[in-house]
Structures are given as structure tokens and as C-alpha cells.
Amino acid sequence: MSQIASAPTAAPAPPRGPRIRYRQALSRDAADQAEVFHHAVMQGAMAHYSVAEREAWASALPRDACAWAARQALFTTLVAECDGRCVGFLELDLPRGRIETLYVWPSLARRGIGSTLLIHAERLLMEQGHARARIEASLVLTERLVRRGWQEVGEEWVERGGERLCRKTLEKRLAAVET
After folding, report:
1. What is the CA angle 137-138-142, rounded to 5?
2. For residue range 65-80, what is the model confidence (pLDDT) as tens digits?
């Protein structure tokens, strides 16, 4: 009888963890934060703001790691990390119950990264005893926040580099979410 040799079977690949990890920011994330901010404003906001408005907005914060590292000392900063790089971040003013910023790399928008950062921020706020969260959101973010249960409570115009930009004040009543 002849025997048929079988091809060796490859060992199954070890299970991979989730591609996006969420954690507290580290100083090494600061340069990536600068780039995420710049690209989110310049590319991600193009449907809502003119080029001049986006350039003024982007220039309001330096495209410099040192500036973003300094902000990490001012705000509790949560990052979304993919393959070791920060691809989204949220700055949280815990004492005031306020989300200061939320930015995601434009090509990764609408994949739940910002929503997951918000869930983590809301949990931290509740742990600090806050019953509500507040944010001054760009027009880019407002519609998505309203769909997530945030309520628009006002509008303001801010000046950046000689340009007036509209943003909305939103609040959300915080409730424990089962995860």
C-alpha cells in the first residue's frame, strides 16, 4: 500500500488581543496627540468649517509634543492606542466634570474609538461623584453626541486666530452602564 504524505499543518496563530487599547496617556503619546489633533481638525472638520477656520483652529494649539505633554499635567488624558501609537484621545477636567477635548485620527473616525473614550470618561466622572458631564463641542462632534444621549444646552462663538468658530455646549446625565 502506498502512503500519501500530508503537508505539515501550521500551528494555529496565538490569539491576538484587541487592536485598539484604551489607557491613560503617557508622555510618549504627546507627539502623536499633536498629529491627531492637527489632522482631525484639518481633515476631519472640513465638512463643517472653512479652510481659514480650520487653519486658525489648528494653530490654536502647537503641533509640538512638549505642549501636549504639558496638557497631560493639566487634564486627565485617555488615549486610544493602535499598534503602539495614539490614534485618538480625550482630555478630561475631572474636578469640573468637563470633557475638554476629543479627537480621533480622521481615517479611523466612525469606528467607535471616540465613543469608547467617552464611555471611559463618563465612568471616571461618575467615580468622582459627578452626576453630569459637560462639553463644548465642535459642529463635527455635536450630531454624534446628541445621538448618544447628550443634550444641547447652548451655543457659543470662540475666536481663534481672527476667525470666529461656532461650537455647542452639551450636557449628559451620567448613569451606570453595564459592561
Report:
1. 65
2. 999 999 999 999 999 9
